[in-house]
C-alpha cells in the first residue's frame, strides 16, 4: 500500500529539548523531522504532537511545535492516556450531543484519515509503545518513519524497527513519504518537495 | 518459486543520464543493469523501459534503451499512468475489435508472462511505487533485482528492500536471474551466461 | 503486544562463571543481565535460573543467583528435563491431592504469568533450544531479551535471533523491558528504572 | 522445531576443487563443512553429495567425499535431474517389484528422514535452487546450514539467505546443528562434539 496524502495524519513524538541531545545522531533525526513537517504542511496533512513530561524534558523545537494542530502533554510512554486517539479518529468518536440536533444542522463527521505516521524519540520506548497501541485499532494503518526516529543507543532503535516490522507496522523513510504524497512530477509541488528532500 | 525465463518480463526503470550520477554506487548499478539486459537478450525475455520526465532527466544509456521493445515516458513515479500494464498483460487486455472478427481470423492472445522483474532507480521511489502497484495484480509475480537498483542514499535503498520484502515482493540478484534462467550447465548458453556474470 | 510486568516471568539461562569468559562481549552481556534482574526485583517479576552442568561450568554470579526463586541444574541444553515448565505454569499443573480437599480449603491456583522472558548464554544453544520448547506451549508468549544474550561467536548469536524471530519469538532489549514494565513517568519507580538503565 | 539427528539427512552441494578457490571466505566455508560432516558421522546422519559437472569443476575434497553414501554428478543447478529425491525419500518411492513379493518377504520401507540439511556452494545458485525444489515437497523440512555455504560475492550469498528465509527455509549454523543433535551434556558424544566445534 502506497501512502496517500489525503489519508494520512502525522504524530510527532517527544522531539524535546532536553531529550534530543542524548539521542544518537540526534541532529540528523531532528533535521529529518523538520523535512517531514515541511512536507506535511505542503500536502495539508494534519500534524499532532506529544511531549513527554514537558516540565522536565522541555518543549519540542518551535518549528516542529508550530506545525502541530495540538500538542498533547503526557506521562505515559504510549499515548493511550491522552486524547490522541480521539483526535486521530473524530468520526469514530462523535460528540454525544450531536445526535440530538436536527439532521440538517449536524456537521457530517470528518472522515478518518486512517494512515497514521509516527516519528520521534525514543524509537524503542514512546514511538514503539504508541505504535503497538495504535496497531490494536484495526481500522488504522500504522506507519513509522524510520529515519526521523532515534534512540539513545542504535541497538535499541534497530531492535525497535525489527519488532515493529514483525508486528505488521510499515517502515518508511522521509523520502518515501515525500514522493508517495507527491506521486507525480507533474504535481505543482514538485519543486518544493525536491527542495525539502535534497 | 524459481524464475523461469519463459514466464519473465523485465522492466528497466529510469536509468537516466542525469539521474545516475546522483545514485550511490551508480556505476556499479548501471553495470549490473547491462548484464541483466544481456541475459534478457540471450533468453529472449521481453524488456520494457520507463523514463521519468525524459526532457529533464535525459534518456537511458543507449545500450539499455536499444534492448527495450518500448520505452515509456512518464511523469508519475509509479507506472500506472503509462500503458505499461497493458504491455505486460496483453491477454488480459485484448483489443475491443478483436471479438467482431470471425474466429479463424483472430490472433490468439499472447499468453501473459506473469513474472515481472523490476530494476532501476530510485529503489525507494519509482521502483518501489511501481512494484506496489503491480502487487495489486494478483496474477503477476513481482520480483525486484536488488543489485541492479540504486538510490541516492543507501539507507533509502535498504529501507525500500525491507518494505518490498515485507509486502511479498521477491528480491533477487542479477546472478540469481542468470542461473535460474539457465537452469543447467548443459544449456548451450552457459558460456555466454558465465561471460556476462564474471 | 507490549510487556505487562504482572504477566511476566524471567528465566536466566546459564550465565555461568566458566562459560561467560568465552562469550563475545561477555562483560557487556552480564551487565545487561544485572540490569534486567534489578528491573525484575523492582517490578516483582519472578525470576528463575538454570545452570548447565554446574559442577563443570560453575555457578551463576551471586548477584544473579540471589535474584532467583529457584536455580535448576540441568544437563540438557533445553530446559525440558528440569521442573522449569511446572514452575512457569503452576495453574496448569496443580498438585494431585488438591482435588480431594473440601472446596473452601483449596488454595486457588496462582494464575500463570504467560509471558516468559529468556536471557542468557549461549544464544544459539541453550537459549534457542529452551525458547523452541516453550514455543510449543501455545498458552505462553516467548520473549528473548537480545542484548542480555551472548554466544561465543557473534555470527551464531545473530543467526539464533533470526531463527527465533522467524519462529514467532518476540525479541526485545533490556530498555524495552524496563519502559514497558514502567509504562508511565508517573510511576513512582521511574527514578529507579532510569538509574538502572542509564 | 529443533533438529533431531534421527530425522535428519545432509546433502553436501558442490564443494568442488575448482570452485572453492573462487568462493569468498572459501577456506572457512570448507572448514565448517568438515565439522558438519564429522558431526554427521558421529550421529549416524546419512550424507549425500552432489558434484556440478565434475569433469570441469573437479571432485569434492576427499574427506567430504568419503563421508557420502553416494555422490551424484549433475549438470542442472538444482538437483531435480539426479536421483537425489529418490534417495532422500526411499519410502515414498518403493521399488515397483516389492508389491509382488509375499508380505513376509517384503522389507519394510526405511522411514523417510524428513529434515534435509543443505550446505554448499554457491549459496545463491545450486544451494538455493535445490532448496526451492525441495520446498515443493511438503513432507520435507528444508534447512540450510548458513555458515557452511558460500558464494563468490557475499552480497549474492546474503541475498540468497534472505530469499530462502522468506520462502520458509530454516537457516541454522553448524554449531546449532551440533548442539541440537546432541541435546544433552550427558550424551556420551559430548566430548567429540565439543572437539569438533571448538
Looking at this protein, list some descriptive labels.
homotetramer; 198 residues; alpha/beta; 6-stranded parallel sheet
How does this structure look, described?
- Chain A is an alpha/beta fold and 198 residues long.
- Chain A has a single domain, classed as Isochorismatase-like (Rossmann fold).
- Chain A contains eight helices and six strands.
- Chain A has helices spanning 26-42, 54-57, 62-65, 84-88, 123-135, 154-167, 174-182, 190-197, and strands spanning 8-13, 47-52, 70-74, 115-120, 141-145, 170-172.
- Chain A has a six-stranded parallel β-sheet with strand order 3-2-1-4-5-6, with helices on both faces.
- In chain A, helix 1 packs antiparallel against helix 8 and helix 5 packs parallel to helix 6 (154-167).
- The two termini of chain A are 25 Å apart.
- Chain A binds chain B through residues 1-2, 146-147, 165, 170-173, 175-176, 179-180, 182-186, and chain B through 52-53, 56, 75-78, 81, 124-125, 128-129, 132-133, 151, 153, 155-156, 159-160, 162-163, 166-167.
What's the layout of helices and strands?
Four copies of one chain form a homotetramer.
Chain A: E1 8-13, H1 26-42, E2 47-52, H2 54-57, H3 62-65, E3 70-74, H4 84-88, E4 115-120, H5 123-135, E5 141-145, H6 154-167, E6 170-172, H7 174-182, H8 190-197
